[in-house]
Design goal:
nuclease; GIY-YIG endonuclease; 4 helices; three-stranded antiparallel sheet
């Protein structure tokens, strides 16, 4: 089953990176439910700005870690 690494832009213009099997559902959770990340709950609404589909959860988590190590400028270039 494929997984997606995603980046959302929060209302305060910060970026949040995560992984999900169903990214649209995950963005909905960030915006509308208590199941979203604590970081995004205080920064709603979030907007999906980047996705990258990967073959497995382990590959997606490794890519997520790579992206999180990037500077904001590098993330903006990726987007």
């Amino acid at each position: 089953m494929s997984h997606t690494v995603y980046i959302v832009e929060c209302s305060d213009k910060t970026l949040y990176t995560g992984t999900a099997a169903h990214v649209i559902n995950r963005v909905f959770q960030h915006n509308k439910t208590g199941a979203g990340a604590k970081y995004t709950r205080a920064r709603r609404p979030v907007t999906l700005v980047y996705t990258e589909v990967l073959p497995s959860l382990s590959v997606a988590r490794k890519r997520e870690a790579e992206i999180k190590r990037l500077s904001r400028k590098q993330k903006m270039e990726l987007i």
